[in-house]
Write a structure and sequence with these properties.
The complex is a heterodimer of chains A (194) and B (531). Chain A is of the alpha/beta class. Helix content of chain A is 42%, strand content 22%. Chain B contains 20 helices and 18 strands. The longest helix of chain B has 24 residues, at 202-225. The chains are: A alpha/beta (194), B alpha/beta (531).
Chain lengths: 194, 531
Amino acid sequence: MKKDIILSGVGGQGILSIATVIGWAALDQNLYLKQAEVHGMSQRGGDVQSNLRISSSEIYSDLIPKGECDMIISMEPMEALRYLPWLSPKGWIITSSAPFVNIPNYPQIEEIEKELKKSANLIKIDSEAIAKEIQAPRSSNMVLLGAAARFIEIIKKENLQEGIKNVFMRKGEEMVATNLKAFEAGYEFAQKSL
Amino acid sequence: MSDKLLLLGDEALALAAIHSGLSGVYAYPGTPSTEITEFIQNHPLAKERGLHSKWSCNEKTAMEAALGASFAGKRALVCMKHVGMNVCADGFINSAMTGTNGGLVVAGCDDPSMHSSQNEQDSRFYADFAMVPCFEPSSQQETYQMTRDAFDFSEKEKLPVLMRLTTRMAHSRAVVKTGEIREENPLRFSPEEDSRRWVLLPANARVRNEVLVKQYLELEQESAKSPYNKLTKGKDNSIGIIVSGIAYNYLMENYPDGCPYSVLKISQYPLPKSLVNELAQQSKSILVIEEGQPFIEQKIKGILPTPIPIHGRLDGTLPRTGELNPDCVRKALGMKELEAGKKSEVTVPRPPALCQGCGHRDFYTALNNVLKDYPTAKVFSDIGCYTLGWLAPFHAFHTCVDMGASITMAIGAAESKVHPSVAVIGDSTFTHSGMTGLLDAVNMKANIVVCISDNLTTGMTGGQDSAGVGRIESICQGIGVAPEHIRLIVPLPKNYPDMEKAIREELEYEGVSVIVCRRECIQTAKRHIKK
């Protein structure tokens, strides 16, 4: 079994924390993992992505081949669309619906939504609004991870929760609780919207 | 004792260095190499042992300091991005001439596709040029193991070893099993009869040159025997594949059940001619898959005894430029594309930008306001976050070439009657390679204005210590800039009138002026507040 995931967003939105949690859980389950990250120049407000590959057998390429991506998890709707050429015809898109506008030629949100709807397997979630609603405004990335959790399959929900505990532990109990709450809110949202 | 850790390629290299008995890492930050030094700076064992890990002013000072440590018998590591190899080339190439004592490993991190760089140069050419061995790992585990072996190999051969990583290896994580922890080397010099090589007077250097040329041929035998270079025979002899470093993964990704062709995997250089010949004899054609520039492809054209078609980056079988990926390798192998989603027409590029609230923004705003009145002005910028000021909305300068080129290009332009001629350089870039240029400007009485956009850090690579913090003005004064023409401004919107007045006055002065434009990087400021 294998899962190829593209995490996307804008520099500073916290996609690497999502990757760290999934990575911790994969390691804990003794799975093979490769995770290509973007460091450097692009982190300054540009588009960022991480290729995350998890498998029960050895993985060669750090990059996901075109057409083999099982899911795009995106903190930003236009950034989700950027990686369509990698998405398998059966693949899922789990994306935040909130646009991050830091460029003058950002497309009309209706255009983006129309394009997203062409995908049969889509979860669109206002993770920012949900995070604010539950008083966890800085944990919208964990809301999104929660929404994606049931589709990751190769890693169980409980393992992801364990991952959150371990990754946020050094920031204190309160941070752990907030992020777990955010994760759960995203998980429930995805369940309801299916 | 063995641990299993999830590590970036950079971190695997760093940890292996510590476990190999490293005594010091010497480096200047540069993507994709920065995380090597940062890992060592934060590692408990490195702290406990008090290993040197402070940032150097530039790659040349780093290389030479590491060579000094090697002279004293210690194990040292030098890290840099590929263009840093240019800066330290004098020290690097001559470290092969002197040879080493304690193990010396140079990590050169190449950036194909130029994710964060101005060119695509391939460090393997430097290793070959200097006649030193080069290791090119294909996985994070191999990075760990090879770095350990590189220190041993360096001590055995008495030569530096170049570890070549590329962005995708440097910045990708995988599980790494670690090995035993070795002690540091004691202080120990080359024996008396072997000490002349450290003095590269022509008489000594000529002797060393003969030794080095001969040794490089012997290193080829070592490469042929190396477990890192492996010829695996296949059933189909229509193609024989030579594949190096991370490109090996893209090849194997396309053959989950095993590759039908013979494959020569190269991870240790100099290139072993005997293995290349063996592959060529059993194949009807050769395909070379390598990350970066066509180094192997060019080499083998001269070493095969019989003509055989060679495919790769030079004949267009693979793209001539840019990073490899499983898809272009798949195409080169003649396989069909997989079914996938189509490129979205709605998506537009999202280039990086200066952070909101960044001091460089306020500086460029003020500079642009003033220069509206000087239509003949040319602005020469440099390497750093502030290079993003070329993009909208600032379009603030005309050149960006290499570390330090702002000041020196401004000098040449001013002497060619460009007026005003303005240089823009960051504090860290100034201490890296700008100070000597400023001394030229003073000696030549060049009519230029040097703006040092000082954010008290090395910003673009994530906020590493900057060498001249607290001393920028005194450095400029020591170099000979007149104190009344060293101006300090604080880049904030409320200060625009003062900033513009200072810039205008210095543009009108005939001679060298320095405007220090100082406000802390907002990213590092945020971190300081959290602490």
